[in-house]
Amino acid sequence: MQIVIPTVGDAWFDEKELREAAIARHGVDGATCGECGTWRWMPLAFGFLPPLRITPPIGGAAIAGSPEWFGAGLQSFRQLLVQRELAELLAAASPRDFKVQDISKTQR
């Protein structure tokens, strides 16, 4: 089986705030792909990210991926938001890979 995660929204984070947070944590903001032009920010734990500002809103999606990417080289990732019921199912099935975290408790 495969989980297909749709990209939802145009932006989840304010780019300026995201760059500032990455620089504060890593000394650099990230890197831009020379081929496709996608900027990938340096990894930040959810508590270090700027507040979520998902536009347009996710709506009723059970799982959604951010349009922004983070990581370096071939290791590029997106933030994911998952409705609690599905998140708990995933965490129970694969506790080494998934952790349920309430985003309202991580926002600054």
Q: What does this protein structure show overall?
A:
About 20% of the residues lie in helices and about 20% in strands. About 15% of the residues are buried. The strands form two sheets. Strands 1-2-4-5 form a four-stranded mixed sheet. A two-stranded antiparallel sheet has the order 3-6. A hairpin with a 6-residue loop joins strand 1 (about 30) and strand 2. The chain is globular. The longest helix has 12 residues, at about 15-25. It has one domain (about 15-100). It has about 110 residues and is α+β, with helices and mostly antiparallel strands.
Key structural traits:
alpha+beta, four-stranded mixed beta sheet, globular, 6 strands
Fraction in beta strands: 15-25%
- What is the strand arrangement across the widest sheet? 1-2-4-5
Number of strands: 6
Oligomer status: single chain
